[in-house]
Design brief:
- By secondary structure, the chain is an alpha+beta fold.
- The N terminus is likely disordered.
- The protein contains 28 helices and 27 strands.
- The strands form four sheets. Strands 15, 16, 17, 18, 19, 20, 21, 22, 23, 24, 25, 26 and 27 form a 13-stranded mixed β-sheet that branches.
- The protein has four domains: 131 residues, Aspartate Aminotransferase, domain 1, CATH 3.90.1150.10; 236 residues, Type I PLP-dependent aspartate aminotransferase-like (Major domain) (Aspartate Aminotransferase, domain 2); 190 residues, Gcn5-related N-acetyltransferase (GNAT) (Aminopeptidase, 3-Layer(aba) Sandwich); 170 residues, Aminopeptidase (3-Layer(aba) Sandwich).
């Protein structure tokens, strides 16, 4: 399989968000002339508000409101000066009060995003390293990536994985002065905690380790003086820690706060911290409101507010634990996540709850993996006991309805989140459909297969038998693949759906750009299986084209698709695969909305190239139909060199030739990290030579050398499709004889000679193939991952 096109992450996110917007659960506008926090107006209806991050309700406190109004009257709506020159008169009191809360000096920032952009490049030096928890907030990751331009290494560990973190610390300890680990105190989606005490102990074990916490969701509702979750765990901020809190969210005002006990570092950050220096300062109203909130935090009243919220959190927990609702993380924070699995179920569930009178947030990609979509519920002091009870009752009633309407079940949700299931799997097969799943093509009727999935490529019946024999019983695990063949028929034995499925070991960076692959390949010199994972895929790494047959006119096609999804989930679990890939779909494919709703996101693959031929055509007539520019290219770069070359078609190779052609293939593989796959075993080329369906277009330099300088490995599909599946090249002669272009031409010439109707030219090199008359089509794949770790790590490695 060729590598996907890059720089499409924003397109992917836009795809997902657009779907959610269309379903009416994202980018909404609140309505109404007032807002109390208890209810929120949506589409002319008042809904009980379970989506706020103002957990203590201070944003509605009359004291904060009056302070903000008074400040506007005295100082205006803004104070239009850089804080580096002169601060609003109200700033001094705010800084004093917040410093008193923490017992340490603070820096007030416009918001946490600008704060991270100001602090991280100032605190982290060129000789340091950064390690990110892969679920740390986007604003921290974005600010850290800026340091790539200063050659500061940025690495990542799986969420809260202390063993992995310790291994990374050891790896950097001899080359880096300080090692910064960056994490959230409370994570915003699931409401789970960072292991703060354990991290502090790790920093004592490794003095190079410095800790950077973003605790904006831990603020106010917990801790002495409401200083947050991290401070509640460590009591005192040591000099190897930086802590971010917020003056927004639960604090009830605006802005954010950096706390730093290291005087030297504090002065460096405060003196010149990028956006902290050049950005506008907080508006007078925000400063005044934050100062009033800080005063409340410094009185016993803050503990009364915390305890009031704690009772509501405990009540919600008690109610949920009496149900079978899939609560993803059991904790005592105000943030809860009820899993729905697929986005489609999530949309349905959220809309049902809104109709019932409750507003909740939908958690979806990229904040969570696509198949880990769910509902984020936040509990605040605005929520009354009877409303909390009514929400849980509504969720318990509507989630099964949402699951049923979207053709899934609770067991699949639990499986998606790797939770212990409380229910038995439901049989989602339509009573009028029968499913057959085989692990060998030998058990499948040849005609049925060849007239459905096997029409093109090398995935006809004989091609799959060849692949099964080749990719089994090999020494290296990456060359041993599992295959499944799924057939779904109706009661009249009419085929509704057929699919080719495989599981094999992939390099994780096969979906990354060459920058990332080069970095990873250096590490694979000592650890060949570094960053590799089992992947379940439609098709396999050796096939391209349509791996899914679907009778789009059949009334039960959606039921067949639902069974395919359930089968993939089970095979993913059984094969211990970490990702599922549905490959090679057209851009306007009618399955797009279905796959996306099932928890897959779309990525763009390299363009696919093919040629349709006329029966009994000639190569001369074919070339004459090319454009004048293409014919000029043909005469200059191909025809002019043909007489200098010895071109032969071989159906078998001797041992020496097999060694040569494998070497030439490996040249191409190593030279193009965009096709960054494992090397195929020698057995593949030996089997090609023995198999009557394979032949080799061989190019040598005429009369001067016995060495092969180019080879095309071609498969003859029984449905009259010619498939140049692999290519091998000697790069020393590539430019002199335009070997690749010559091989493309000879492939077309051979297919015409054999009277084939179609040539599958595969992916990549679309520019060269188009010159010789190929039709180029955009192709997409749909990806579903068990978590976002690999995707986010690739994002780091792809940055220059």
């Amino acid at each position: 399989m060729a590598k996907i096109k890059q720089n499409n992450f924003l397109d992917t996110v836009n795809d997902v968000f657009t779907d959610a917007i269309d379903e009416g659960v994202l980018h909404l506008y609140a309505d109404g002339e007032t807002f109390t926090g208890r209810t929120i107006g949506v589409n002319n209806r008042k809904l009980f508000h379970f989506g706020t991050t103002g957990y203590l309700g201070l944003e509605q406190d009359s004291r904060l409101k009056e302070a903000a109004i008074s400040a506007i009257r005295k100082y205006g709506t803004q104070y239009p000066l850089s804080k580096s020159y002169i601060s609003n008169p109200l700033y001094r009191q705010l800084e004093e009060k917040v410093s008193e809360m923490y017992g340490n000096p603070v820096v007030i920032t416009k918001n946490s995003t600008l704060g991270h952009l100001g602090v991280i490049p100032s605190a982290v030096k060129d000789e340091d390293a950064i390690i990110l928890d892969h679920q740390v907030h986007w604003s921290v990751q974005s600010a850290a990536k800026v340091l790539k331009t200063r050659s500061v290494p940025i690495d990542m560990v799986r969420h809260n994985d202390l063993n992995m973190l310790e291994d990374k610390i050891k790896a950097y300890s001899n080359t880096r002065k300080r090692i910064w680990y960056m994490a959230d105190g409370i994570y915003s989606m699931y409401g789970d905690y960072a292991p703060v005490k354990e991290l502090k102990a790790l920093s004592l074990k490794y003095p190079q380790l410095h800790l950077y916490f973003d605790d904006v969701h831990g603020m106010s509702w917990i801790g002495k003086n409401g200083t947050g979750y991290v401070m509640s765990e460590i009591n005192e901020l040591s000099e190897n820690m930086l802590l971010f809190g917020t003056l927004s969210k639960t604090f009830g005002a605006s802005g954010s706060v950096l706390v730093c006990s290291n005087k030297k570092m504090y002065n460096e950050i405060k003196t010149f911290g990028g956006p902290l220096t050049f950005s506008a300062q907080l508006e007078p109203a925000s400063v005044a409101a934050a100062t009033t909130s800080a005063e409340i935090h410094l009185t016993p009243e803050i503990y009364e507010l915390q305890n009031d919220l704690k009772k509501r959190i405990q009540y919600f927990n008690e109610l949920v634990h009496q149900t079978d609702l899939p609560l993803i993380d059991k904790n005592n924070s105000p943030v809860f996540f009820i899993g729905t699995g697929t986005p489609k179920t999530g949309y349905n569930f959220v809309n049902r709850l809104m109709k019932e009178g409750f507003y909740v947030n939908l958690g979806l990609f990229p904040a969570v993996p696509v198949k880990n979509t769910g509902v984020r519920i936040t509990i605040s002091r605005h929520n009354q006991i009877q409303e909390i009870k009514a929400l849980v009752d509504a969720m318990q009633y509507h989630l099964p309805k949402a699951l049923e309407e979207t053709h899934t079940d609770l067991n699949r949700v639990y499986q998606a989140f790797k939770l212990e299931s409380k229910s038995k799997p439901e049989n989602l097969t339509h009573e009028n459909l029968t499913m057959r799943l085989e692990n060998s093509i030998s058990n499948i009727d040849k005609l049925t297969w060849n007239t459905s999935v096997g029409k093109n490529g090398i995935q006809d019946w004989d091609g799959m038998k060849f692949l099964e024999d080749t990719f089994s019983d090999n020494e290296l695990k990456e060359n041993n693949w599992s295959f499944w063949y799924l057939l779904i028929h109706d009661q009249k034995n009419q085929l509704v759906l057929a699919a080719l499925i495989s599981s094999s070991l992939w390099k994780d960076d096969m979906l990354a750009n060459t920058i990332a692959s080069k970095t990873i390949e250096e590490k694979r010199l000592t650890d060949p299986y570094y960053m590799t994972s089992k992947v379940l895929s439609l098709g396999c790494l050796f096939t391209e084209g349509n791996h899914l047959y679907l009778d789009n006119k059949h009334p039960l096609k959606n039921d067949a698709l639902n069974k395919l999804m359930a089968t993939l989930e089970q095979l993913e679990k059984d094969s211990n695969s970490k990702m599922v890939t549905l490959r090679d779909f057209n851009e306007d494919d009618r399955l797009h909305s279905y796959f996306q709703g099932q928890g897959y996101f779309r990525i763009q693959m390299p363009n696919s190239c093919s040629i349709s031929l006329r029966r009994n055509d000639s190569i001369e007539h074919y070339i004459s139909k090319l454009s004048s520019r293409s014919r000029k290219h043909f005469r200059k770069d191909i025809l002019a060199h043909e007489s200098s070359l010895e071109i032969s078609i071989l159906s078998e190779l001797d041992k020496a030739q097999i060694i040569q052609v494998k070497k030439l293939y490996d040249n191409v593989r190593k030279n193009n990290l965009g096709l960054n796959t494992f090397s195929y075993p020698a057995k593949l080329f030996e089997n090609m030579s023995k198999n009557p369906n394979w032949e080799f277009i061989i190019i040598k330099v005429a009369k001067t050398s016995k060495d092969i300088i180019g080879v095309m490995f071609c498969y003859r599909n029984k449905n009259h499709t010619y498939v140049p599946s692999l290519v091998g090249l000697d790069y020393d002669n590539l430019l002199t004889y335009h070997t690749y272009r010559q091989l493309l031409y000879q492939t077309i010439k051979r297919a015409i000679h054999l009277n084939f109707e179609h040539i599958d030219l595969g992916m990549t090199a679309a520019f060269e193939k188009r010159k010789l008359g190929a039709i180029v089509e955009e192709k997409h794949a749909y990806i579903q991952t068990s978590d976002n770790y690999t995707l986010e790590l690739m994002g780091l490695l792809e940055c220059k």
